[in-house]
Design brief:
Layout: H1 3-9, E1 13-16, E2 23-25, H2 33-36, E3 43-47, E4 59-64, E5 67-73, H3 93-96, H4 98-103, E6 112-114, H5 115-127, H6 131-139, H7 142-149, E7 157-159, H8 162-180, E8 186-188, H9 196-209, E9 212-214, H10 216-220, H11 223-231, E10 248-252, H12 256-259, H13 264-270, E11 276-280, E12 293-295, H14 302-319, H15 324-333, E13 339-345, E14 348-354, E15 373-374, E16 381-382, H16 388-391, E17 423-430, E18 440-452, E19 455-461, H17 462-470, H18 492-499, H19 503-520, E20 524-528, H20 538-551, E21 561-562
Parallel strand pairs: 8-9, 10-11, 10-20, 11-12, 20-21
Antiparallel strand pairs: 1-2, 3-4, 4-5, 6-7, 13-14, 13-19, 15-16, 17-18, 18-19
Helix pairs in contact: 5-6, 6-8, 11-20, 14-18, 14-19, 14-20, 18-19
Length: about 575
């Protein structure tokens, strides 16, 4: 019998009961093959799935005939110490759905253009063979512009071709160059680690075009400026199990249970040890459910909150009461004691560059990268070890020991000139609290006169400039804050109008963060995520938050510092 007709024989009952409730059919068992082969495989591949996920979850991917059939977790992640929870299970729902992403019918395989724009573009090309003129006819027509822009966020994409999509992109960029200038073109590329070739090609294109190029990190977490400038490296991400060692945790813009699913248990488990968790988030996120206190800041206002917390910590733990642990850390691991030249223009002083060995007449190699502190023990200018000039010199001295780089003698850098100042100068500092870019702050700093190769200059310390910027009242006069309720940058009262957080909550949280750091020797932790960095001023936000872990001697300590979870 023909195979086709044989299939119909399966539909004809062989035997049927009198009642009609039972029927016996005759057919093959080929239908069972799909079920029998459902879990068969010929190869197992270990994978971490996500190309930019920092989870490093271990997965077994089962493959048959080159097709991913299924996957499960591979329980081979390293064991933790006996006093800590284990890593396993190490995976999240997105990892378990890896094969679905690969073979999903919704996976984008072709260029798409919004339907309204595609229709207008195709009509314009009929009237204007020149692509630039075709694009101009659309964007210079207010009705057409409104039509395709108002459709944004509503879906409605239609399949296009690479030629058409490339032509639209090229025409729009040329129009932007002609109308507004080449620097108004911004190109976005993924993190270079994903493809150096595509990144380099895109970056080169934008350079030749005269535009600006952003990378994944620039947009998402602003790490290229903020992280290397503060830490000297791309990211400083401790293993997430270290959260379990923390004595106090702030989740700041990081929705851990959702975006760090494999590690979320460390956050919830450490609470059983008594660790307090603060959630800084504009929405009631999953991480907020694991928190003891919720600081629901207005979106984009995180820098104001961080600056106000920093103001409280600097005033109470550095100026009013000097905390030995904090001061020693500041001298040893930060740039607080380094000397900064003040530049004078039109009778106004601004912070210039660090006082360098080259400034003092040293013309040896890399002298422009060797910076001075004032040693309390000898009352002399000293270049400590660990300068960039030492890193690249013939005699490499690259460490964090508080020693004179020339003699090897121990030093104690002076943080401030307030007790032995030669003068007081008003310094103009940039201020980012207004819509325009012209706003500044005028704050007074203690200075000393220094004779350099170019003549006499005024110098101050980074620490003195820092206290001035935060507006901490040290009895020097000028635009300072008499108390926390003064509506001047960067008091707890000032931040309230931007963040919506009551000033007393800010004061209380800042004190808790600092007090815990003292009690636990630096185990105050901030899990900071990309949620606070979707803004043009993201770099400022990051630095304002990073300062808190520096002020409280937390960075570099197990259970403390900056636990950046920059993907969310």
């Amino acid at each position: 019998m023909n195979t086709f007709f044989k299939k119909f024989s399966y539909l004809i009952p062989k035997n049927k009961s009198e009642s009609g409730h039972q029927a016996e059919y005759q057919g093959g068992r080929d239908w069972e093959s799909m079920y029998r082969n459902r879990w068969s495989y010929d190869k197992v591949v270990r994978s971490t799935h996500g190309v930019n996920c920092t989870g490093s979850c271990s997965w077994n991917v089962f493959v048959k005939n080159g097709i991913v059939t299924w996957e499960n977790q591979n329980h081979d992640y390293p064991e933790t110490s006996p006093d800590m929870p284990d890593f396993e299970p190490r995976g999240c729902p997105r990892g378990a759905l890896f094969s679905w992403y690969m073979y999903s019918p919704l996976r984008v395989k072709y260029p798409y253009v919004r339907g309204e724009l595609a229709d207008m573009w195709r009509e314009a090309k009929k009237e204007h063979p020149n692509a630039l003129e075709a694009w101009k006819s659309i964007v210079t027509d207010p009705e057409k512009t409104k039509r395709y822009k108002s459709a944004r966020g509503m879906g409605g994409f239609v399949r296009s071709t690479w030629d058409e999509a490339s032509e639209i992109a090229a025409a729009s960029m040329l129009y932007t160059v002609q109308t507004y200038g080449p620097d108004r073109n911004f190109g976005f590329s993924p993190i270079p680690a994903m493809s150096m070739l595509s990144y380099a090609a895109g970056a080169r294109f934008m350079n030749l075009m005269g535009g600006a190029c952003l990378s994944f990190y620039d947009w998402y977490a602003d790490l290229p400026p903020a992280s290397p400038q503060v830490w000297g490296e791309q990211t400083d991400v401790p293993e997430s199990s270290d959260w379990y060692n923390a004595g106090y945790i702030i989740t700041w813009g990081s929705n851990v249970p959702q975006t760090r699913t494999p590690d979320a248990h460390f956050l919830t488990e450490v609470r059983y040890k008594g660790t307090k968790v603060i959630s800084v988030s504009p929405d009631y996120a999953e991480s907020t459910t694991a928190a003891d206190t919720w600081l629901n800041v207005k979106a984009g206002s995180d820098a104001a909150l961080a600056m106000a917390m920093g103001h409280v910590i600097l005033k109470e733990y550095y100026v009013d009461n000097q905390t030995p642990m904090f001061l020693d850390y500041a001298k040893r691991y930060t740039d607080f004691p380094f000397l900064v030249r003040l530049d004078e223009k039109d009778g106004k002083f601004t912070a210039g560059h660090f006082l360098t060995a080259k400034d003092m007449g040293d013309l040896s190699q890399h002298s422009e990268f060797k910076y001075y502190v004032l040693d309390e023990k000898s009352d002399k200018l000293v270049i400590p070890n660990g300068q960039m000039g030492h890193r690249w010199g013939d005699k490499t001295k690259w460490n964090l020991k508080l020693e004179n780089s020339e003699t090897g003698e121990p030093i104690s850098p002076k943080l401030s000139f307030i007790d032995e100042k030669d003068d007081l100068k008003t310094v103009t500092l940039p201020f980012f609290g207004h819509l325009d870019n012209t706003a500044t702050l005028s704050r007074r700093v203690p200075v000393k006169r220094m004779k350099t190769a170019d003549g006499e200059v005024y110098v101050t310390t980074v620490y003195d400039l820092l206290l001035a910027n935060y507006g901490v009242d040290r009895g020097l006069g000028g635009e300072v804050n008499a108390d926390y309720e003064s509506d001047t940058p960067f008091t707890p009262a000032w931040q309230e109008k931007y963040t919506g957080i009551k000033s007393d909550m800010v004061i209380h949280t800042a004190r808790e963060f600092a007090d815990n750091a003292i009690a636990t020797k630096g185990r105050s932790l901030i899990i900071m995520g990309g949620g606070i960095n979707h803004w043009f001023h993201a770099d400022i936000i990051y630095r304002a938050v990073l300062n808190l872990v520096l002020f409280c001697a937390c960075e570099g300590k197990n259970g403390g510092g900056w636990a950046a979870h920059y993907v969310g």
